[in-house]
Amino acid sequence: MKIQKIAIFSFVAAIMILISFVSFQTIIEESNFETEVESNSHQKENMISIFHEKEEIITTFQQVDNLSKLTSDGVVTFDTEDYVVGKQSLKITTDGNGNPEIFRLTNISPPIDFTEKFLKAWGKISYRNAVEMLRINISSDNFENYKTYWIHQRPSSPTAKSFQTNVWNPITISNTQTTDKGITDISKINSIEIVAKDRGNRPFTFWLNSLSLLENNDKAIVSFTFDDAVGTQFTNAVPILAEYNYSATTYIPTGWVGKSNRLSIDQLKVMQDKYGWDISSHTVNHVDVSKINNEKRLEGELVNSKQFLLNNGFEKGSEHFAYPFGSFNSELSIDLIKKHYKTARIVRGDIETLPVADPYRIRVIYVLSITPPDLVLDRIDRAIDNGDWAILVFHGIVDNNAYDIQGTYLKSNFQVIVDGINKKGVDVMTVSEVYNNFFEKKI
Ligand SMILES: [Zn+2]
Fold first, then answer.
1. In this structure, is the dihedral angle defined by the CA atoms of residues 284, 303, 362 and 418, taken in order, positive or negative?
2. Less crowded by CB within 10 Å, the N or C end of the chain?
3. SS3 of 436, please?
């Protein structure tokens, strides 16, 4: 399936490429409703920065003479038609029998120091729902001890964001999202193992074009975000956050403003002007942008929402967007969102790295009614350990009866989270503040 045209301009340390995206259809990450779609003629070119300035490249799989296959299952080749950097990518195809297929890069010399760094990879998979597990192990002693970076694990990997079906995308994996077998000397890594396993009912193909490292950020950042303009954000969340001078980001469907139980213009003005909140976009009518094929209608949802923010003096958060339903996988919507916004937030994926893997798929810790405050605080501890960005997503904050799964969180539990974050002394910033401080300078 040939899906791209590439032009590469090399600079000293940064490579910009043109890549075209195929049309594809998916719902939310980890959803079971994903369907396989063949690429079609609708191709568009997007400019993507493959590597950041400070990125340390481990391999782009161009000249690989130290790759070995440890299992009889599976096929590994190099794909000279489909790649995002160099002239080829590594291509691994499973057998469809549910056995793990293992490939190793050995004798890496000089050894690589993974200390205080996180892993980044460019890849894609032919069909996400066929994948049981994808992981990368690193070792300094021939895999007597090793560290595992989890890319994908069914039924749903809470700690990683996987590659997408049929579209090249970068992922980053923080040390928060690793597990250890024994004690690995990560300062002297000389072998890397790739393990791919299908679900036993059909094969899948996995393309990998690069492995690289980025330095951990000096300190962690926490962002509180809220969706859907629920009125209790003003009555309950604002005062609790204000106890510690914390500001947050609220993503509003602008067409819902002033409706029953939703935030009013006056409340939003107080939130921004008095409490420093970002007022950001969540479309006009809370539409699933991945399902709208009418470009005019889709662009209207994006442009009119932003225009509403600007017309009402909400410049601070106006460049930032959250996908309703977390549905991000459509070529048309991502293209248009890139045209009008600087970031877009999803509803899955756990902790985000700084720099982020993809500003248009920013990962979060999604807080459900049933999520205990301790679990959230534990994630934040892990973010602190690795200088990660922990973005929390809430909807309404209710006095009692937080019964529905998605929409509400108990005020007393919210207070525990906010108090706990304050005790840890971690920095709290809005999304626009993180963008202004970390994206433009460092990415
Ligand atoms: Zn929403």
1. negative
2. N
3. helix
The structure's pTM equals 0.83
**How far is ligand 1, taken at its centre, from the CA of residue 228, in Å?**
5
For 221-442, CATH gives: 3.20.20.370
CA of 159 to the centre of ligand 1 (A): 22
The C-alpha atoms of residue 424 and residue 413 are separated, in whole angstroms, by: 17
What spacing in Å lies between the alpha carbon of 208 and ligand 1's midpoint? 33
Superfamily (CATH) of domain 58-215? Galactose-binding domain-like (2.60.120.260)
**Distance between start and end Cα atoms, the chain:** 32
With a pLDDT cut of 70, the percent of the chain lying above it is 86
CA 367 from centroid of its chain's CA atoms: 16
Residue ranges per structural domain of the chain: 58-215, 221-442
The confidence band for 357, taking pLDDT boundaries of 50, 70 and 90, is confident
Tell me, in angstroms, the distance from the centre of ligand 1 to residue 402's CA. Answer: 17
Which residues have beta carbons under 5 A from ligand 1 (an ion)? 227-228, 324
In contact, 171 and 352? CB cutoff 8 Å: no
pLDDT digits (tens, 9 = 90+) for 26-45: 222 222 223 333 332 222 33
